[in-house]
Amino acid sequence: MSKVRHVLGISGGKDSAALAIYLKNLYPQMEIDYYSSDTGKELDETYQLINNLEVYLGKSINILKGAENSHEDPFDHFLKMYGGFLPSSNARWCTKKLKLEPFEKYVGDDLVVSYVGIRGDEDREGYISKKTNIQSIFPFRRNIWSEDVIDKFLANNRKTEILDSLPKFDFGIKKKKFEVILGKEISPSFNMHHKLNQLLDLGVRETNYLINDFLKSTKYPLAHDNSEFPLLNNEDNLNRADIFRILEETGVGVPAYYKKIDFEVDGKTSSYARSRSGCFFCFYQQKIEWVWLFEQHNSLYMKAMEYEKDGYNWVQGESLEQLSAPDRILQIKRDYAKRQERLSNKSSQFLVDILDDEESIGCASCFI
């Protein structure tokens, strides 16, 4: 059996940091390699979080850099290579060059299980490598498996194979119910999402054992590991509040850029913060986050502005110079405050926080 490496990427964000703590505390027997991809354009709080984590984990975090032999920061090196063309949602060369390529070079051809901190209250899929030697696991969700694994496990042409594996397990009175669900055909009216949820509702642990047994017939990394995968018994489903609690209770702390700062507009008080980690000039930022950067880290805002030229802007249809005009800042704050008020009136503050998270998914989402 080939040795399987277990790795976890630290993005500088709350979720990946909390995941490192979570796995250390619940599964201390697991040997996990930690890494972080440094673009050279992170906020200072990101580097502080990495230092705090190293102390708590008692282990160094490997720092990966694209263009590692260059005399420039990785981002600046590749910006020149791309002729000054700034990255955007339609041309995410920064993700490829600064995150994915350094990671895939780091793992090489080794069999790797990569742990990703997507929470149970998020409706999105994380980074799934196209390389067959890398398998993603999501410990914060009740479904710890990646979408590609689920697609194969629940495919109609695998139904008989999965049903034949049932006698291996002692599922007690649940066995007959699992047999019924597993016997259902995937169809437009009963898709894989429906089938998976029925299985998980019946038993998360049992579903994990069935999927893990199926994986032994595949080329996924876990098929090559002869030890029992400890997360098979994990039935947790963590949300945003759980993440903050983990960081605060362990003393690692929440990065300062997540902490809301009050501002006044039209005689009313609202608040803003940064909703994610990543480069200080990330194009996925909301406009209110650009205002936050302008007011809380003005020198970094000015550096971001210096990158704009020849029609290459961070914000589509608007330069940072235009965005930082007093009247424009006032309008952005006013619009944001009204939107927050509407959301608060319609739902709980918890939902407002979740919406803030999901509106700003960027390159760090590959690893958090």
Structural write-up:
The protein has helices at residues 14-26, 44-57, 74-81, 93-107, 147-153, 159-165, 175-182, 192-202, 204-215, 240-249, 287-296, 298-306, 320-323, 326-346, 349-358, and strands at 4-9, 32-37, 62-64, 111-115, 134-137, 261-265, 268-272. The protein has 368 residues and is of the alpha/beta class. It has three domains: 4-146 and 226-249, Rossmann fold; 147-225, no CATH class; 257-366, no CATH class. It has a five-stranded parallel β-sheet. Helix 1 (14-26) runs parallel beside helix 2 (44-57), helix 8 (192-202) packs across helix 9 (204-215) and helix 11 (287-296) packs across helix 12 (298-306). It starts with a strand and ends in a 10-residue tail after the last helix.
